[in-house]
Amino acid sequence: MFYNFFVLACLNLAVLYPLCLWSVAKNPLKNDFYKFHLGLPNFFGGIAVICFLLLSAPLTLKLFVLGWKCLFLYVTFYNWKKPYPKMGQLTATSFLGMFLMTFLLACLFGPNPGLIFMVLLSGFILSFSLFSLGLGFWYAQNEGLSFEYLRRTVRIFIVLLFVRWVWDVGVFFTGRLLYQGQMTPVSNFLFKSDGFLLFFVLWIGTLLPLAMLYFVKGSLNWRRLPAINEMLSSSFCLILAGDVVTKYYTARYFISM
Fold first, then answer.
1. SS3 for 57?
2. How far apart are CA 215 and CA 227, in angstroms?
3. How far is CA 2 from CA 9, 34, 120, 250, in A?
4. What is the share, in percent, of the chain residues with pLDDT greater than 90?
5. How confident is the model at residue 124 (pLDDT cuts 50, 70, 90)?
6. Which domain covers residue 37, as residue numbers?
7. Cβ neighbours of residue 152 under 8 Å, at least 6 residues apart?
8. Does 141 or 98 have the greater pLDDT score?
9. Of 84, 111, 138, which residue constitutes the final position of a domain?
10. How confident is the model at residue 97, as a pLDDT?
């Protein structure tokens, strides 16, 4: 089960990460910047495809995943030497990938809209976390660039994290899960020995990065890149750790957080 989630997490990054480029579309950040951010999701997609082919999944699903990866490679190759990638092509490829992700999740875990929503939302958050970190370091190496692109990316990042936090709070108060043969409210499960790590997801994995991004937004006005990159790095580590814990509870208890 955990192996399945690892494969889906890699595929999720490959599918959703290219959409982050909309926050910096048609700007002075070109050439090697775009090559790196096109190559990174292809790397995760390659891991996902290789691992997925080793799963005991139907051949049809394997062919769908392999076909999507070949399409993504073609789009990447077509845009590799262009100053700016064709965002319409990348967006269409990502939307096909999202449809594929939804189909895979329904096949592996049954029709669960809450789970599908959270997997995609978590993928967007992790993608924007990694993208904003790379963007911050790019600014540190290239002086004189407008901070509007980083500011725009951070704003989207904040909105996604806020939606995640609101969803988690809603699940905390209204959600139920099967624990020791009984349907138990999530609010009670959190205070049991098996559920205390969910506090990590709710507060340290979501609320603390949200607070850090608030300070990042303020630091952008003063162009304090070292402090910005340190906070973005810390946010990425916390979000990644929270995502791992979330996948553990999703795999074991099918909780959509």
1. coil
2. 9
3. 10, 32, 17, 10
4. 32
5. very high
6. 1-111
7. 23, 24
8. 98
9. 111
10. 93
